[in-house]
From TrEMBL:
Name used for this protein in its record: Diaminobutyrate--2-oxoglutarate transaminase
One Pfam family matching this protein: Aminotran_3
CDD domains noted in UniProt: OAT_like (cd00610)
Keyword Cytoplasm: no
Protein keywords: Aminotransferase, Pyridoxal phosphate, Transferase
Pathway info: Amine and polyamine biosynthesis; ectoine biosynthesis; L-ectoine from L-aspartate 4-semialdehyde: step 1/3
Keyword Transferase: yes
Uppermost EC category: transferase
InterPro entries in UniProt: Aminotrans_3 (IPR005814), Aminotrans_3_PPA_site (IPR049704), Dat (IPR004637), PyrdxlP-dep_Trfase (IPR015424), PyrdxlP-dep_Trfase_major (IPR015421), PyrdxlP-dep_Trfase_small (IPR015422)
The protein's required cofactors: pyridoxal 5'-phosphate
Amino acid sequence: MCNATVTAGGPTAVAVTEPAPVAPTSTHEGILRRQSLRESAARTYARSLPIVPVRARGLTIEGADGRRYLDCLSGAGTLALGHNHPVVLEAIKKVIDSGAPLHVLDLATPVKDAFTTELFATLPRALAEDGRIQFCGPAGTDAVEAALKLVRTATGRSGLLAFTGAYHGMTAGALEASGGASDVRVTRLPFPHDYRCPFGIGGERGAELAARWTESLLDDPKSGVPEPAGMILEPVQGEGGVIPAPDEWLRRMRAITADRSIPLIADEVQTGVGRTGTFWGVEHSGVVPDVMVMSKAIGGSLPLAVVVYRSGLDVWPPGAHAGTFRGNQLSMAAGAA
């Protein structure tokens, strides 16, 4: 017997399978009650899903209520191999058992070297051959902030090109690059969309008009667009509705930015690590961005975020971008696995 519950306000579905051995109801209800009393009003998933996970493997989790659930959240994209994959657990255990330090800021370690080598082997060749990596704070929004800071430092400009419907994170700069924000330094451009095309057309013609709009806006000296330090986009808009960017449109954005010496930032936080069929979302179009922002699944379910960018942008002096949790060895080991 299988029951299904679809939560309101998001693409989350939890299917309940045969009950596991029943745990004390008081444990389940007590934890939920204490969480409700102590946690911020900003909590989200816990409001829609009143469950208390205590064990997990693969696609399923077991709650303190004794039920087993099919986990369609997948850690918001962090669980590329599902919960507690044996290969990932073995990689984590190996580091713990070795006596290696678990946190070393940005010092070089064998674990970090292995992770970086594996990561660069997945990148578009041109970026892998000329790339630099910056380990950031452990969330994708931290990496977005680092990328925006990087291109503004490298170009000496403050403007930014972003797109309607975009989502890049919850910190100040990342939010301002997302759709619906109001920072006057950010110019919002039309994102091609078949169902809700900004020009009411859709398809290839709608994507072509979106590209031409971008070109004309950038080339018009009276447009009022602040000189852009970079363009940031998602190969597939996630929170905006899971809207894939057309390959030809992505190639046009690459040409437009390259012709005007505007660094192109690909936000691969949600689209990376095989979620679109290729390892990185930009690979479908053959586009090589100047900057790639990565997080979520690259840590093998643990917190990790990095920015990879072409060497010509590496103008930061030592200490210009730092953070305490850049050296999490368990995350790097899990990611390399």
